Amino acid sequence: MTNETFSIGELARATGTKVETIRYYERIGLLPLPARTGGNYRAYARPHLERLGFIRRGRDLGFSLDGVRELLRLSDDRDRPCTEVDRIARAHLAQVERKLADLTMLRGELRQRIDQCRHGTVADCRIIEALAPHA
Amino acid sequence: MTNETFSIGELARATGTKVETIRYYERIGLLPLPARTGGNYRAYARPHLERLGFIRRGRDLGFSLDGVRELLRLSDDRDRPCTEVDRIARAHLAQVERKLADLTMLRGELRQRIDQCRHGTVADCRIIEALAPHA
DNA sequence: ATGGACCCTGTAGCTGCTACAGGGTCAATC
DNA sequence: GATTGACCCTGTAGCAGCTACAGGGTCCAT
User: Fold this and answer.
1) What is the pLDDT of residues A26-83, one digit of tens each?
2) Quick one: DSSP state of residue A82?
3) Which of A1, A65, A61, A76 is closest to A30 using CA atoms?
4) d(Cα A84, Cα A90) in Å, to the nearest integer?
5) Predicted structure pTM score
């Protein structure tokens, strides 16, 4: 039987997570409490490794910790329809798209300000002018 | 002479800022301390209104509070060349562009996952599959 | 004098970590 | 057997940029 365990440092290296972050995930109940060694070290098993991997990939896809938590919960019930999963992912996508639209607008405005800057003095800088109203 | 003053609530309404946010800006030294009335109410003058307007527009353009602080400092010296202003704005633009690139990638990945979802059970959901490795 | 809208200070909460301080453990080396 | 050094432990505080109280005071109209 395979009953290998991992220290928190090994888990960190294996998943590209900082040790403190792993402890943080534990604290907020995202990662279950691992067994402890005689010297009170955390002893993780394979399921922990997988779960942490799941969390990391979810975060990489931009899901919030609550989103990840929900996805983890849903992924446990293998037989349920994935309607909910789909809904969460779509909601997240919509949010990403909103943010993209916002940032695109922002980029446009910034570019315009910067392009109009004639590199004179602050008194007639278009960037400052855009911020200070009356001048 | 025009020596009108504004209450914090009036300033809030005039600039679309929450009252607490104004007090916060004061606390971190972004907005100068206003005069006080007999009843210890803040009594703002026109320069405060303008300064807060500047801050808000800077924030709307996505500058950090430190960025805004720097821009405010620079805007005081009307005769200096606007090189520094330009540099700050360009650095910010570059950051916005990096974020845009990241989010665009993210959107692509999310769309792909969602498109591949066949709306079956969680067991063969592509979204979950992308997160859990082995399955 | 009473009500309601406004104001005050101070503190704690939010997200998602990160960074200590001040200690304990473990394996290897001298 | 003592010492190093890498690792681990808990607990707390900090970051940005607000936001939300609690527990009071003020001002003005009725």
Assistant:
1) 999 999 999 999 999 999 999 999 999 999 999 999 999 999 999 999 998 889 999 9
2) T
3) A65
4) 10
5) 0.89
A 64-103 → B contacts, CB under 8 A? 71, 74-75, 77-83, 85-86, 89-90, 92-93, 96-97, 99-100, 103
Q: What is the DSSP string of A77-115?
A: -TTSBTHHHHHHHHHHHHHHHHHHHHHHHHHHHHHHHHH
- Tokens at B102, concatenated: 């990241």
Q: Return the ∠ at Cα A81 (arms to A80 and A85), rounded to 5°.
A: 105
pLDDT value at position A119? 85
Chain A interface, mutation test: which of B119, B127, B134, most A Cβ atoms within 10 Å? B127
Q: How far is CA B113 from CA A46, A72, A93, B58, B87, in A?
A: 26, 16, 10, 37, 39
Q: Which amino acid is at A16?
A: G
- Report the C-alpha gap between A107 and B93 in whole angstroms: 6
As given in the structure block, the two tokens for residue B46 are 């026109």
